[in-house]
Amino acid sequence: MIVRIMGEGQVKLADSHFAELNALDDELLTEMESGDGRGFRATLTALLDKVRELGTPLPDDSLEPSELILPAPEASLEEVRALLSDDGLIPG
């Protein structure tokens, strides 16, 4: 799956990593619902770091269609909320 981190670029990520990412996504969703701004920031950073760690960066000149778009690291709680689906940021 091709994942875009807004403002950074794209990475190719194996589907086998999504269970691990979904755990962080669930935590992020809980923190957003409770208004835990500090926890939200820490978990968003952890989620993006994990995507970078597990994914293989695509070249900057590659424009593959992104199947998943994640917010920029500095995104506000409100900006991330606008990107959410019923499943959170990551489907499944």
Q: What is the typical, i.e. mean, pLDDT?
A: 90
Order of helices and strands: EEHHEEH
Name the overall outline: globular
Query: In DSSP terms, counting alpha (H) and pi (I) runs of 4 or more, how many helices?
Result: 3
Major sheet summary line? 4 strands, mixed
What do you see in this structure?
By secondary structure, the protein is α+β, with helices and mostly antiparallel strands. Helices cover 46% and strands 14% of the residues. The chain has three helices and four strands; from the N terminus they run ββααββα. A four-stranded mixed beta sheet has the order 3-2-1-4, covered by helices on one side. β1 (2-5) and β2 form a beta hairpin. The longest helix has 18 residues, at 37-54. The two termini are 14 Å apart. The mean pLDDT is 90.
Which characteristics define this entry?
alpha+beta; 3 helices; 14% strand; 4 strands
Fold blueprint:
Elements: E1 2-5, E2 9-12, H1 18-34, H2 37-54, E3 56-57, E4 68-70, H3 77-83
Parallel strand pairs: 1-4
Antiparallel strand pairs: 1-2, 2-3
Helix pairs in contact: 1-2
Can you give me a brief rundown of this structure?
With about 90 residues, the protein is an alpha+beta fold. About 45% of the residues lie in helices and about 15% in strands.
